[in-house]
Structure formats: structure tokens, C-alpha cells
Design goal:
5 helices, mainly alpha
């Protein structure tokens, strides 16, 4: 899948729903698990690393968050071994429109995601 594919927006929506469900449960999800859950919903060409997944997770963060102020939903997507988000996530957090401060930490972002969705 590429970001220009007609089903890409639907894949973003599906990813948002998967991540919101996990956030409500207060749980992280690995890149592989997210890829597998998307595949189960018919989006079978989103491998867990690099490529489309990187763009997908950025678009998940921008979903109904164009100004970047809300917690970044993809903070709960982690590496299976390290249990931390990828380096791309920190880069994204410091870029526009998110512009997280120097003393920002992905753990804080993760807690904000859990808090926001726990209240829903």
C-alpha cells in the first residue's frame, strides 16, 4: 500500500480505532501487532517497519489533531523488544505541528494518550 492508494484513508481510520481501543484499555501495542490487526481488517500491505507504517502513524497523530496539540496517539505503538516507540516517533514529536519541547519524553506522551482515552 502507498499513501496515494484509495484505501489509505480507510487504513488510517482503522489504525486510529485500533489504537483508541488499546488506549482505553491502558495498553501499548507493538508495530507487528498493529500490522497484524490491520491485515485482519483487510489492510494486508502495511508491514510493521518503515515505509507506509511511518506515514500511517504520522497521519494517525494528525487525525482530528491538525494543530498537533492533542496527545499523539501513536505514542502507544512500541517495539516488541525495547517496549519503546521508534526513533521516528521522537523526530515526529519535535517536528511541526507537534513541536514538543526539549524536555519532552515519549513516556509523558503515552500517559497523556492513556488519560485522554480513559476518560472517553
Amino acid at each position: 500500500m502507498r499513501i496515494k492508494d484509495p484505501e489509505y484513508p480507510a487504513a488510517v481510520e482503522a489504525a486510529v480505532e485500533i489504537l483508541r481501543k488499546r488506549a482505553r484499555q491502558g495498553q501499548t501495542i507493538t508495530y507487528g501487532e498493529l500490522s497484524a490487526e490491520l491485515a485482519a481488517q483487510g489492510f494486508d500491505s502495511i508491514p510493521p517497519h518503515r515505509g507506509v507504517m511511518t506515514y500511517l502513524l504520522k497521519d494517525v497523530c494528525l487525525h482530528r489533531n491538525e494543530d498537533g496539540r492533542a496527545p499523539m496517539l501513536s505514542a502507544i505503538v512500541v517495539n516488541k523488544v525495547s517496549r519503546e516507540p521508534s526513533d521516528q516517533f521522537s523526530g515526529l514529536a519535535r517536528s511541526l505541528p507537534f513541536s514538543r519541547p526539549v524536555n519532552w519524553s515519549w513516556r509523558d506522551e503515552q500517559q497523556q494518550v492513556f488519560a485522554q482515552h480513559h476518560e472517553e
